[in-house]
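Course assignment 3, question 2. Fill in each field.
Student: A.L.
Task: Predict the tertiary structure for the chain below.
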Amino acid sequence: SERTESSFSSSKWKANLKTQSVEVDGFYRHMSDLGLRYGDEFRPIRELAAGSGKSTGRVTLSDAIAPRADEYALHPVIFDGALQVFSAGAATVEGRQARMKLPVRFGRILYLGSPGAATRVRAKVQEFADDFIEGDIAIYDNSGKPCVLVDGFRAISLAGAGRATTPGGTRDVTYHVAWERTPNDFAKAAIPPLPLEQLQAIAQEAIDRVIETRGHSELEQALYAMDDLAAAQLARGLRDMGASPKTTFDADSLRVAAPMRPAFERLAAGLVRHGLLRATKKGWQPTARFAKAADSAGQTLRNYIETHPGHLPEALLCEGNCSELGAILQGEKDAVQVLFSGIGAELLDHFYGDGLFTSHWIAGIAAAISSAARRLPKGRGLRILEVGAGTGGLASQVLPLLERGLHSYIFSDVSAAFFSGAGQKLASFPEVEFKIFDLEKPGTDQELEAGSFDYIIGTNVIHAVRDVRDALRNLHGLLAPGGSLLFMDTATPQLWTETVFGLTSGWWRLTDRDLRPEQPLLNRAQWESALRESGFSETASLPGLIGPTGGEGQIGLLARKANEKTSSAAEPETKKLEEKSWLIFADNSELSEALVRQVRASGARCRVAWVGKSFEFDGQDAFNLRPGTFEDWQKLVELCAETAPERVVYLWNLEEQVGESDSLDALLHFTNALEAARPAGKLRLDLVTRNAQSVGNESAPSAVEQAPAIGLMRVILNEYSNLAWRSIDLPAEASAEDSATLWRELLRKDSEREIALRGDARYVRRLDRGRPTREQWLDADLPLRLESRERGHLDTLRFAPFELPKCEPGQVLIDVKAAGMNFRDVLKALALYPGDASDARIFGDEVGGVVREVGAGVTHVAPGDRVFGLAVFGLSTQTIARGGDVLRIPGNLTFEEAATLPVVFMTSWHALQNVARLRRGERILVHAGAGGVGMAAIQIAQYLGAEVI
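Answer field:
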């Protein structure tokens, strides 16, 4: 402001009186502790004082760099020194435990002149909290003349920074214990796959849900309009090639290359259907509508984008191809290169991933796969192959719905061209394997095993082969018995589809003319017939939206390979054991009995020890002993000395009558007795617990009383190198499979020390860098909202569960279908929004959705109504809004469109109508008209009859 500028420019240097001198070297040690180690040249502070958030200092360049001060309006080291002086004042209000903070904003910088090589600095903290600090900095030259004022300087905390714990250290290095799933190569019990009709129903439900959100009628209207758009763009392209209303043209007269003539004839036939061309014996003749369509091609494009803004990629892809129509048809340019040139790659990425005609199919496939995965036995994963994976649109939706580290996923395409971009998109899923795979060749010739996949999925790919049935047979061979093929594909040829993709050479590679005599697309009945001819025993399909030619634009297909008769898991093979003497500390369960039988059936001697009230020995292989009596353990070891045990399995943790302290006493006494009797003897011991470890997505373990035994085992491992202890943690619920699972683990010869068995999965303990992350699988009906664990760090944003408040009188409870994100939400996430504001941690102000409940007094909307408006915590699955802030969605607006209206239009309406009182005929300049408020202001100004500059 002018007042600030005037007061500063007339001020003189004056040190803060309420500050205390600070030792400069001590200050730099403090900064080093925070992680900022300054070199000599970047330590320009010569004098320093601070107190109560205020600080002053003398900042001077070193002799080595001072001569270059005149080369800068403000030397960077001088400015950095001023920030350091500010930090000294900040330290007096934050304390030494504060995190390091980094500058993110300078509200205003007033520059009056260069301070030179020697300056004086005065700084003051105006506002601070745990995660930010804000204040002002004034820089004077050595004579006390004002030079630079920094008003509204702001810094936010840096996540992960911490005090150095060693000389030269700059951050805390954090590690955590994690569980890594390892291959389990035993034969698993075959389970029947999810019925195909059930997969079909799950996929259809997900598809319908997305279409409902997008608007069914809007999508079909867009389909019709896309063909009209394509017709206009083609008319302009053909006119540019030489077609005119007064002449008849054909492929020869337009110099269409021979390979492109099938595409040319299909496009011409499409324009005949649209009434723009008339077919004659000598070729095609433009109608009167042809010139009009060609002249209005630009306006048709603008109208389409304005009417269907969610379909921008479709519009621009069509316009891009048609602008090069002559070069493509005449063979001068390749359509694929045109499609991927400029922003084409981004448009295709959006079209195949988030496009309004693709996203519901992806949602359907993802829902079916995730449902199939959830119904598997615990610990068992799916083997998934995606074909024609391209830009990663399908994979990016399927993978987040699958439990991490459990499933295998091969991302394949005919070339590696897409792998780099897709790898970046899927970087958080290291389990994904990228592989080149050609659908037209057997998978066994491409390093893929026959019968090795449970699911093969894809979108818009199988039609693009020479022979559909050959490709389907290749996929059939890769599926395991009972495996399923799920894919979507384009069905009825539409003019837009043939304009965008029909110009590519791959579109016309088909050789199976008995199945596809004219073009490469098939309808649902044809696909299902081809699938059955290719060996699939079951087929089903999903209907698509109806296009302008009366057929379905895109469809979904499901097919199943015949399943073999299910069988139970094979019992572990009984074989001779290397260790001929075993000792088992048994509990009173079937698990112990089965283990003893298995050991003896394998030809080894098996001694068994039970918990007893006194020491007893039957003279052969059975013992009773007291856990807490050392003498009993000494007797046990002595009596076993003749054929000393080579393997010990400790199951007493599973025994209810053995308490936590008794179990620890037993382990300690046994270890001491062993060491006293045979100090050099090597012995392998397996400690068995049940749900004492928290593994994978499990919550805290239920058997925490068994955990101390594992801790004692770790201590024993460190102190007694001759005792090879291992811990094996069984699932929480006992089952008939436990004995076979435990036996297989006991036979393993690896060096793992801590193992957790969960169903079919085997986990081993690892030490990983960083903080632990845990996935949460939440009920679909649980309310979620966007929250930030730490303001200023985007990686801490997450959707978190919350308790849905009661709908009070005058309020409306809304199931959110779409939410608007405003710049204010970005400022909040980056901690650039005032931290003390009441809404600093509330994300989302505007929503579109369906009313779930209304409070007393609300009569203008009712449950089930499609509404939009302002709400608190709009970026959530459900939200509460004041009744007066909610209205029914007008006309055919989608939820997404409606959710973008409230903030920007209310802001613009208030500014133009209530404040500016804009009237018809007045002229208005809308600055930054491309933003949300700007675009709303333009529309409102035009509505009010004003002239927009």
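Instructor remarks: The first strand starts at residue 20 and ends at 21. The chain has a mean pLDDT of 89.
Grade: pending
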